[in-house]
Design goal:
The chain is mostly beta strands. It has a single domain, classed as Sandwich (Jelly Rolls), CATH 2.60.120.1110. It is 0% helix and 37% strand. The chain contains no helices and 13 strands. The strands form 3 sheets. Strands 5, 6, 8, 9, 10 and 12 form a 6-stranded antiparallel β-sheet that branches. Strands 1, 4, 7, 11 and 13 form a 5-stranded antiparallel β-sheet that branches. Strands 2-3 form a two-stranded antiparallel sheet. The chain is globular.
């Protein structure tokens, strides 16, 4: 999985190449009952003409399709809390800023016990993408009191675990 800094909703890659997530600060960042928008809004028109207020079609058609990888890089905490992540899109308002946002895809509700460090969730980019994209994190039950998250558009999925690449094609019966 290759992460591009221009396609990141949340988090970053440090000088050593490690993912650094957007950190929850004592429930201030992810508060129960309210939606928290991703740190970055992606303007997909930067790679296509924006004269119509629509960006490049990043949905169905490519093989493999583009997806959003959402990785928990610091375990979340919050007794009884759960999170749902929405992918939202908006047209240009006419002044170069996002217009009205609409939800085009979302994850199932994820309990906090399933938001441990290293967990990766994928969200498909479906047809209907307009000029702008953002994620909204909906927290219910209780505030999130700690945790860190990285999210960005990727072309391929990360294979889980060590040795998850292709097996060696070399064999020697004498070794």
């Amino acid at each position: 999985m290759i992460m591009d800094a221009l396609l990141m909703f949340d988090g970053s890659v440090n000088a050593e190449g490690a993912l650094v997530g957007t950190t929850v600060n004592s429930g201030v960042t992810f508060t129960s009952g309210t939606g928290t928008d991703s740190a970055n809004t992606i303007d997909v028109s930067q790679i296509a003409s924006s004269a119509s207020g629509r960006g490049r079609d990043v949905g169905i058609g490519d093989n493999p399709d583009l997806q959003i990888a959402i990785e928990i890089v610091g375990a979340f905490a919050g007794t009884g809390a759960s999170m749902q992540i929405e992918l939202q899109t908006a047209p240009d308002s006419g002044s170069g800023t996002p217009g009205a946002w609409s939800v085009i895809n979302m994850t199932p509700v994820i309990p906090v016990v399933n938001l441990g460090g290293g967990q990766i969730t994928y969200l498909d980019i479906v047809p209907g993408v307009q000029k702008y994209l953002k994620l909204t994190y909906l927290v219910t039950g209780a505030n999130m009191t700690q945790g860190a998250i990285v999210a960005g558009i990727v072309l391929d999925r990360q294979l889980p675990g060590p040795g998850s690449g292709y097996p060696s094609g070399y064999s020697n019966q004498y070794i």
